[in-house]
Amino acid sequence: MSATQTKDADERILQASPLRKLLGRPELGSVVGAIAVFLFFAFFADSFLHAASLSTVLYAASTIGIMAVPVALLMIGGEFDLSAGVMVTSSALVSSMFSYQMTANVWVGVAVSLLVTLAIGAFNGYMLTRTKLPSFIITLGTFLMLTGLNLGFTKLIDGTVSTKTIADMEGFPSARDVFASTLTLGGVGFKVTILWWLALVAVASWILLRTRAGNWIFAVGGNKDAARAVGVPVTRTKIGLYMGVALGAWISGQHLLFSYDVVQSGEGVGNELIYIIAAVIGGCLITGGYGSAVGSAVGALIFGMTSKGIVFAEWNPDWFKFFLGAMLLLATLLNAWVRKRAEATK
Amino acid sequence: MARFRTWVGIALAGALSVSLAGCSSTGGKRAEDARKAASAQGKAAVNTPRWTFAMITHSGDGDTFWDIVQSGAEQAAVKDNINFLYSHDDEAQQQAQLVNAAIDKKVDGIIVTLAKPDAMKSALDRARKAGIPVVTVNSGSQESKAFGALTHIGQDETIAGEAVGEELNERGREKAICVLHEQGNVGHEQRCDGVEKTFDGKIERLYVNGTSMPDVQSAIEAKLQTDASLDAVVTLGAPYADTAVKAKQGADSKAEIDTFDLNAKVAAGLEDGSLGFAVDQQPYLQGYEAVDLLWLYRYNADVLGGGRPVLTGPQIITKDDAAALSDYTKRGTR
């Protein structure tokens, strides 16, 4: 939104100062929090500032961040997805087992997995818009079904609880390069997921702030009925948002598969909450209509710094969850406070 | 309001007097302190530099088994003048990240479990390149050597299962169920495979949801009710043995309950005859030896096992051994 500056400015349009604009950004509170967490661990953990350590922290953040971006968009659109965690595992399983059973080039499995995962996302969105049930219920059902399917199908097809290795199959090296390679910069290895993550943040920010679809997302999250009344395609937007989460799950799933070439069928449960936490710390409102993609990235970064910082600081990891909970509360309070101040100064 | 306050006062006074008068002459914290005083407290017995060893396991939050492994490792760390760090995550990806974090810290030795070996491969490669010695414990006896670890300390799950099958034969059992409390755990499948291999009778698998005890109990109970010919239940973790005993009572079944692993309750159950036998893999020894072997390697370049896994089990424990072990299980080292 750039107000065109004419010579005699329209007095009815409020001119916001740059500082005020900054205060109005959803991610401001989380950026302050991220700086605080960074300084805290830089001070308390000796090896935290080493390049290798920061690369580990960034990798941890990226594995959460890749999912936190589409989850943030979905939350701005006013919905939840509780199936996001196991969907990552499902995506990896489909890819691996399809390639193995068909003895196909692994890229075929990757493509099939993309279709299947997007279909799961579309199913979530379709069920939601058709049944008018809360997304919490719909995706809880999907979450449980996928958990069962992951275990059941893997056992049925492979006879064990994890998939068979596809590392010796055609196309594996190139797929590994795309999804799970390590780029060396100045003697330190950085995982390619960091690039995927940054790319997703950029694309999502562009969609939110520069396109019509972005306005639709804010509109359906703010007030669905009002949005529908002014001609926003609510159904299409929501289904699209769920497919966005599925796309993130597909990228994460392929990363899991190609970094370890074997997938454990029981994993991923519980991660969906971590993605939601990252989005909320980054300034998304639980009620929808407010938030940003950059914020979710900062939230993921805070999560990565905390989870690995506790290790670098040589603390007992038993306390990790406590810190996480305390930080979630603090970040959300800070966000609320900043938002109030920003609205008061308008 | 005033009346309400009086009632609260009376209630508080009552609670206080009951808690003062109601001291227990058995068990509790006092008994624990007495046990602690009886067992010698360790301090460093060597004058080697203070090395840092990191242990990273695939344990979930609040797992009793891993608590015992950890206390063994800590005891050895005190003795060997080691700064010991422990972290864990049940997600393979997170566990690999924790190993990488330990390598970033430039620790002097790493102890790691290979429950999900493929996920740990690249991290262990990195450790080797960084010149950090690695000892694998508990799971991954097949992969340990290939990944460049010095030694593997643990129990071969299949061999442990076979030992259980043989013990069941000796006890004249004919139809058993193998209770798996964690769907997706390769080690658990191997245990049941081992039992199946040596057991002459019939064996069925029962998958239960290990995170919810009432769920486990009702599932075992239902199974025992539907099939009266079952005469043995094998649980794969110590906490589930007691639950299986309750299920047996509920179903009014004659089946004998046997279990993998040990804890205070299992030792008591063996003593009073509600459990048949337990097969122990001595988790304390796994933690203790891992730290000690890393110390020996750093101090004297010693490696144990001659390129083969060092086995800490299976050890079959019956009623006769239980009495001797009950003190150790209570203090959390067996």
Automatic annotation (TrEMBL), chain A:
<keyword id="KW-0813">Transport</keyword>
<keyword id="KW-0472">Membrane</keyword>
<feature type="transmembrane region" description="Helical">
    <location>
        <begin position="319"/>
        <end position="338"/>
    </location>
</feature>
<feature type="transmembrane region" description="Helical">
    <location>
        <begin position="28"/>
        <end position="45"/>
    </location>
</feature>
<feature type="transmembrane region" description="Helical">
    <location>
        <begin position="133"/>
        <end position="153"/>
    </location>
</feature>
<dbReference type="GO" id="GO:0022857">
    <property type="term" value="F:transmembrane transporter activity"/>
</dbReference>
<protein>
    <recommendedName>
        <fullName>Xylose transport system permease protein XylH</fullName>
    </recommendedName>
</protein>
<dbReference type="GO" id="GO:0005886">
    <property type="term" value="C:plasma membrane"/>
</dbReference>
<keyword id="KW-0812">Transmembrane</keyword>
<feature type="transmembrane region" description="Helical">
    <location>
        <begin position="188"/>
        <end position="209"/>
    </location>
</feature>
<keyword id="KW-1133">Transmembrane helix</keyword>
<dbReference type="InterPro" id="IPR001851">
    <property type="entry name" value="ABC_transp_permease"/>
</dbReference>
<feature type="transmembrane region" description="Helical">
    <location>
        <begin position="273"/>
        <end position="290"/>
    </location>
</feature>
<comment type="function">
    <text>Part of the binding-protein-dependent transport system for D-xylose. Probably responsible for the translocation of the substrate across the membrane.</text>
</comment>
<keyword id="KW-0997">Cell inner membrane</keyword>
<keyword id="KW-0762">Sugar transport</keyword>
<feature type="transmembrane region" description="Helical">
    <location>
        <begin position="57"/>
        <end position="75"/>
    </location>
</feature>
<keyword id="KW-1003">Cell membrane</keyword>
<feature type="transmembrane region" description="Helical">
    <location>
        <begin position="106"/>
        <end position="126"/>
    </location>
</feature>
<dbReference type="Pfam" id="PF02653">
    <property type="entry name" value="BPD_transp_2"/>
</dbReference>
From TrEMBL, chain B:
<keyword id="KW-0449">Lipoprotein</keyword>
<dbReference type="GO" id="GO:0030288">
    <property type="term" value="C:outer membrane-bounded periplasmic space"/>
</dbReference>
<dbReference type="InterPro" id="IPR028082">
    <property type="entry name" value="Peripla_BP_I"/>
</dbReference>
<feature type="signal peptide">
    <location>
        <begin position="1"/>
        <end position="21"/>
    </location>
</feature>
<protein>
    <submittedName>
        <fullName>ABC transport system sugar binding lipoprotein</fullName>
    </submittedName>
</protein>
<keyword id="KW-0732">Signal</keyword>
<dbReference type="InterPro" id="IPR025997">
    <property type="entry name" value="SBP_2_dom"/>
</dbReference>
<dbReference type="InterPro" id="IPR050555">
    <property type="entry name" value="Bact_Solute-Bind_Prot2"/>
</dbReference>
<dbReference type="Pfam" id="PF13407">
    <property type="entry name" value="Peripla_BP_4"/>
</dbReference>
<dbReference type="GO" id="GO:0030246">
    <property type="term" value="F:carbohydrate binding"/>
</dbReference>
<comment type="similarity">
    <text>Belongs to the bacterial solute-binding protein 2 family.</text>
</comment>
<feature type="domain" description="Periplasmic binding protein">
    <location>
        <begin position="53"/>
        <end position="296"/>
    </location>
</feature>
